């Protein structure tokens, strides 16, 4: 039986979680015990975020998926809060009837930005970052110690295309350039850490050679089990010698991988200082694959890889400009789109790609996406507004097109092309 009216100072209840399945409480719904003030609790950021998700309607089974921590850690946290009387539980997500006033019997209101900020003290509605984005950052940051494929949200055997799509989706959410010139408070460094880890995961898994080495390193890190106290006899002695031999072989292989990793890293940094960015990135990436626990390698990797991405984008844009000058619009558009993978927050590149897709009468949905991105990144550039208006006009959205042409003229009254576009509507 569970207490019908637990208080914050009471003993609470103990849950059996995890392996025992639905009969152990995964179908129950935790709620804040009456009289508890979350602002008075001493919580870690992850615990605060978890508590912000407890609203009296979300069952434990769902909390274990969205709580921002490994399921086992969520179980332990909820069990502790339960024992301390902070949480009470309802079966099947319904409030239990209690002899109480109408006010206390009313269902809890959905958490507002203010109540979520109390439950998760690090959330600050005053920042230039929406509360739901702050929650997403805290949730994602809690996952950074997981394996690379889990960080990207793909299967362990995902192909390169799935890995690439996952990376570009996460990059749009967490690339620091997305939040340029915003007041992010403590979330700035968090977003930077998340992006570095996402970039690391992508680069190591998307390249077949480094992915294979990561898997080899993981296998090599599992040392043979040391022998238990041997029983007497020649057979036992032989088994012990065999195990010791295997253990010695493992240590030699481990040391060899570390030496190779150090050599690759040194080569990569030499290439970096010589401004051979792509070569540097390849060497440092392999160094991490051979020695994935080396934090010094990982610390240097983000800067090296960003330079490599800039170089890749520069080469692709140069090739695209060449294709465009030859009238090969389709190839130019393809190359510009690929360059956007590395420079997603380049307003000029977004607008140029939108114009090319419009010229090709191609994918107007993508053209609108790129034109909108350019306008969001640089809202006071008349040419970008004009391009967005032209995309809307091609899509048959006359009212939207008129609005953007007017915006362009407001920003640049001498824009003759926008004037002509308005006349033609």
Write a compact overview of the structure shown.
With 425 residues, the chain is mainly alpha-helical.
Q: What's the helix and strand layout?
A:
Layout: E1 28-32, H1 45-52, H2 60-66, H3 71-83, E2 87-91, H4 102-105, H5 113-119, H6 131-141, H7 148-152, H8 160-174, H9 187-206, H10 208-220, H11 234-273, H12 277-290, H13 295-325, H14 329-340, H15 347-359, H16 364-377, H17 382-394, H18 398-411, H19 416-424
Antiparallel strand pairs: 1-2
Report on this model:
The chain has helices at residues 45-52, 60-66, 71-83, 102-105, 113-119, 131-141, 148-152, 160-174, 187-206, 208-220, 234-273, 277-290, 295-325, 329-340, 347-359, 364-377, 382-394, 398-411, 416-424; strands at residues 28-32, 87-91. A two-stranded antiparallel ribbon has the order 1-2. Residues 1-25, 91-108, 115-119 and 223-231 have low confidence and may be disordered. It is built from 19 helices and two strands. With 425 residues, it is mainly α. The longest helix has 40 residues, at 234-273. The protein is flat, with a radius of gyration of 28 Å. Helices cover 62% and strands 2% of the residues.
Which series of helices and strands comes N to C?
A: EHHHEHHHHHHHHHHHHHHHH
Number of DSSP strand runs: 2
* Widest sheet, order of strands: 1-2
- The value of Rg in angstroms is 28 Å
């Amino acid at each position: 039986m569970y207490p019908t009216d637990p208080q914050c100072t009471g003993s609470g209840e103990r849950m059996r979680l995890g392996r025992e399945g639905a009969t152990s409480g995964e179908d129950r719904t935790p709620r804040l015990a009456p009289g508890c003030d979350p602002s008075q609790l001493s919580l870690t950021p992850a615990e605060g975020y978890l508590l912000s998700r407890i609203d009296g309607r979300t069952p434990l089974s769902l909390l274990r998926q969205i709580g921002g921590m490994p399921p086992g850690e969520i179980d332990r946290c909820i069990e502790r809060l339960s024992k301390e009387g902070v949480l009470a539980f309802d079966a099947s997500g319904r409030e239990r009837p209690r002899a109480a006033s109408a006010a206390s019997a009313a269902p809890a209101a959905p958490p507002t930005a203010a109540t979520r900020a109390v439950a998760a003290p690090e959330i600050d509605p005053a920042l230039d970052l929406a509360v739901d984005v702050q929650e997403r950052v805290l949730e994602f940051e809690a996952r950074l110690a997981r394996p690379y494929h889990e960080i990207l949200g793909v299967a362990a055997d995902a192909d390169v295309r799935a890995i690439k799509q996952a990376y570009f989706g996460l990059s749009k959410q967490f690339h620091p350039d997305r939040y340029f010139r915003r007041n992010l408070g403590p979330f700035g460094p968090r977003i930077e850490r998340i992006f570095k880890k996402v970039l690391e995961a992508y680069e190591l898994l998307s390249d077949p050679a480094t992915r294979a080495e990561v898997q080899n390193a993981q296998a090599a890190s599992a040392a043979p089990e040391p022998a238990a106290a041997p029983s007497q006899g020649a057979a036992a002695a032989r088994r012990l010698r065999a195990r010791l031999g295997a253990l010695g072989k493992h240590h030699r292989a481990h040391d060899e991988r570390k030496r190779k990793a150090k050599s690759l890293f040194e080569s990569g940094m030499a290439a970096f200082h010589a401004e051979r960015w792509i070569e540097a990135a390849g060497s440092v990436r392999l160094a991490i694959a051979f020695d994935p626990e080396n934090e010094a390698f990982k610390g240097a990797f983000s800067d090296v890889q960003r330079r490599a991405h800039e170089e890749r984008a520069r080469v692709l844009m140069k090739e695209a400009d060449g294709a465009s000058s030859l009238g090969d619009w389709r190839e130019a558009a393809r190359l510009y789109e690929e360059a956007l993978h590395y420079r997603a927050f380049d307003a000029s590149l977004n607008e140029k790609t939108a114009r090319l897709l419009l010229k090709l009468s191609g994918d107007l949905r993508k053209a609108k996406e790129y034109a909108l991105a350019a306008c969001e990144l640089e809202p006071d550039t008349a040419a970008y507004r004009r391009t967005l208006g032209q995309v809307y006009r091609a899509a048959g959205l006359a009212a939207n097109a008129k609005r953007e042409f007017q915006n362009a003229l407001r920003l640049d009254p001498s824009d003759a092309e926008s004037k002509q576009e308005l006349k033609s509507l």
